[in-house]
Fold each of these.
Amino acid sequence: CSSDPEQGSSHPLGRALLAAHAALGTPLPAAKDARALPGQAALARVDGTDVAVGSPRYAREHADLSAAEARVAQLEDQGKTVVVLLVDGAVRGLIALRDEPRPDAQVAIQDLRALGVTPVMLTGDNTRTGQAVARTLGLEVHAQLLPEDKLRLIRDLQRQGGVVMIGDGINDAPALAAADVGVAMGGGTDVALETAHVALLRPQVRAAADLIRLSRATMRVIRQNVAFAVGLKLVFLITTLLGLTGLWPAVLSDTGATALVTANALRLLRFRGGEQD
């Protein structure tokens, strides 16, 4: 029953519930009027009953969660994300999920710091879960964030400098659009991919560090090419005006400069980032 409202969901927790149900080998009943409340819950009508799968905060606002509060706190202290199942406005169960960091997350964070980037984690998970993951990775964390909270934090961070936002879910879309550069992870939702400025084809955190390296290398090449081309033209402009060189040497130098800056730009094809596996 808990996976019924998640049919068609692109949220990581929704996909996890659907995968767990698929492993049971039983068919899902049809869900009607399914809708999502970003950062709060997924709702649907199943076999004539109203079913909601949502956060404890959503459950507290729409049902009596007092009998399950101790268990919710216990699970969250273990670093798990708790999902509450509501049927016709009554609490019918708790589901605990643990979001493990991606295998390359620790290395990616080290790479980003080496590049002078300060990583900050924004999550809709509860504070205990967010802090547990942040301790593992050594990150500053802001938890229990709704999409509008992430947007506000992005704008606050922009007062301190340029901000790159990396996300993959529908809840990340407003922040991705507001960031100086929005980066959608491979395998993310369509909304995130359409909103972001850049899409990473590899679903690896380390690809973000590679993106920054490639961007900086590209800017270096652009500056080199502009400086070389403008400098060479100035030299031949001055020497031509002084009568030291004629028209044909200037034409040949311009053609040669085009070939050289093109060859310099082609060096970017040799760029290799982190592990591709």
Amino acid sequence: MIVSTLLVGGLFFGLAGDVLASGAEEASHGSAAVTFLWIAILLLVAKAASLVEKFGQPSVLGELVAGVILGNLAILGINFFEQVKTDSIILFLAELGVVILLFQIGLESNIKDMRRVGIPALLVACIGVVVPFVLGTYIVGPLLLPNLDPNAYLFLGAALTATSVGITARVFKDLGKLRSPEAQIVLGAAVIDDVFGLIILAVVSAIATSGSVSPATIGLITAKSFLFLAGSIILGQIFAPRLGKLFSKINTGVGMKFSLAISIGLFAAFAAQMIGLAPIVGAFAAGLVLDPVHFRFFRDPQIVRDIRSAVKGVNSKTREKIFQAVERYSYRHIEDLIEPVAFLLVPIFFVMTGMSVRLDTMFNPSILLTALGITVVAFLGKLVAGLAAGSANKLIVGFGMIPRGEVGLIFATIGRGLGVVSDEVFSVIVVMVIFSTLLTPPILTFLLKRQKEADSQESSHLGLPRLHLSPYLLIRISRRSLHWLERRRRKS
């Protein structure tokens, strides 16, 4: 239903685009006009693809699938979008979109939260990064995708490390479990996971660029990444409040507040690029250090001032509730200011990422089986991480860490841009992201409901034993699955 709707929409926009583009090319301002048309179509397609949310799936999945459809319309003889893939303006907007996305993720993360979740979340994050990376880079990657450039395996392993916490958080929230120990461990571990994943990305990107894989080089790049993040946090804590105070003396309006925040994010992205790291590492670091207190010298938004003046005559209890809501809005005001920019740019990145997938490579049964094998590894690596969840339900934590989304796609896109990740490997990673995104919400919902039923029955002395995760059983099942996939791949 979802795919057929997106396919019909893609055909409509593709045919309309061909007609409009042929007219635009004859116009005197053809190049600019067609670029405007492309941006409009990409945005409309991305927003139409949010239809998947009605089926319980995240909008990023719809944007990705829509991009896959648009990018492969040439198979049906519709070539309009082939030019989009190489347009410098569109590619720049997509790259800016991913920088804004990581800046947002940094803003929504908090260093204090990382400390608060404790050792279980740290252990879950460490295992959830190390195990998938080692499996993808050194074991399953060479097994299922032999004879590739060693750097391709590094990017494959890196793409397996990142967790898309937004998908899991939505499931926990919908079921009223956001405050549960399992949810807190997953959310905390996912933030730490992002930091580790970005450090791995910095290392593998530098290795791919320099072509050197000596231990000294790896150690130097890793140290550089840690020092950049630590230095950003320290310098940010020192200079961000002072910059906020300085610029508030010029103007305390929302425009100045927005410009200061976005400029800090872009400057950090530039600084990361200058020292050989990915710009998204700098953007994430900038978002991580920016705190609402750094903007305390700026005026509150107009709506906040209006509400505060309007509730003066309201009874104290109601006024207190309104003030609490207003304070929450004020606290998140930077995120809310950045969000409209993200609405414009981030969907372009995901649609363009989907357009990079070549469906003709997926017609090869060997590639499909390889994608399934990599998906098994993606599941296994995070399920093993759930074993470190302490007294929390290990299976729920493990499945909560499984979805791969934005960051995994970013890793694959960067590897492709460096000429390391081939069309086949890129398609395998995208299929893995789609499967992990599609399968996790229903499985996690089932496990959470089962846990709720078990808890209620235990409280009535009719309890069922909780479902425990056996690492031996997981590894045994996964090894057999991988051996079976390898045999099928060789036969095909």
Amino acid sequence: MVRHTARPEPRPMVIPGSMRSSAAVAAASRDGSFSLTAPGCHPGRVGALMTGTDALVHVVRPPTGDPAGALVLLHGRGTSEYDLRPLLEVLDPHRRLLGVTPRAPLTLPPGGAHWYISRGIPGPDPKTFDESFELVSGWLDALLEENGLGHSRLILGGFSQGTVMSYALGLGAGRPRPRAIIALSGFMPEVPGFELDLAGLEGYPVALGHGTYDPVIPLEWGERARDRLVEAGADVTWRESPMPHAVDPDYLAELAGWITDVLGDADGA
């Protein structure tokens, strides 16, 4: 099943990569709305020097009380853990969830963090993809365990490269499935030796959004992912917005209610 959402009058788009602000980061740090872990990125390679939640630098936005679940957002290529941090407030305005935005483990010229070396669409560089997948899988599992949360209470999402990793982490063969996935402006990865497991997706909630004029990851790749999920029986919410490689703020506002709905159906494990 696919739900098409109608876009209202346009508002300014959100272009990840442009949202970082030292002033905003400093202000958030002062008001205690997030905390930051300390390990560094690994230049030119995916590091394995640390394990558990120490494996990735990450920003934590705590819930107001006991967490009803976790919201983990993975940024796009060449940015940082701060890039999608503002989206936590839009997607979870009442702070019911533990909000976390990690930094990708790989650094490449001219700068910024990457989840893997890009070799085009739909095939990431196999070596860096596999290493990152293993590292981030361990980090994510440890994060949930440390906070007493099961994968059934996890909303996992991302933008661009972060969407690619969200598909891999959420639907990869042998991986525990999160409660739902948010996939913005991305594609499903095709890597030798790696497989997505789309069996048993009947009624599984996935929200996809893509820009009609996206020059980085063309719309057709979002449509292909959508069609595969629909064919597998997933409950797909789809928004196609007249914008480039960016996030539709109106869609984000809708997804706040969507998150509340899908977590309300979870079993609390």
Amino acid sequence: MKEIKLEAVVRDTRGKGAARSLRREGLVPGVLYGYKTDNMALAVKQSDLLKILHDPKKRRMVVELIIKDNGGTSKKVIIKDVQNDVIRHLPIHVDFYALDETRKMRVDVPVTLTGEPIGVKNGGILRHHMDEIEVKCLPHDIPEEVTIDVSDLDIGDAIFLKDLKVQVKYEFVGDPAQIIVSVEHPAVEAEVVEVEEEEMEVEEGTGAAEAEKEEKSED
């Protein structure tokens, strides 16, 4: 996986008031902790952070965090946690976790499907059951995505976790029987619609019958 760079500055003050002041300046307060790292209060540009957070692939990348006012010290980190403003949905705090580059870690990686399934061409419906897959690998081997070709899937076919090609640099984590993607027969959806229509007819019929009873009782 490619690494991206993000500049940070050390925060000398803490507390809600100081955090609000930083946000007004376009900065997001944060903290750095992890492997061989003392907890450090930091701040990063909101615009730079959003470029990472708005891209599902970049969100999981290893970040080279460059601490400008600490002698240009850099740390290989991942974004561990982000707190967002509930109204504006903008980041108000971020946690960076310093990595041990010699130790394997687990991370969720987005799934990308390629090709048009044969079954879809024949009227089937493509079901994407897993948007992400957990992998275990060294930090510098984290893949940007897991690409799966679904061109050969016909109606009734599915691709399971166990069907994925074994990779050299990372391994898949999870139940081998998990379905990642499948092509279902359109009748499955049609049956659901029919059942809903039948229920509506029953409800309408019940309502009409009750109305008749009320009219008779009034007579």
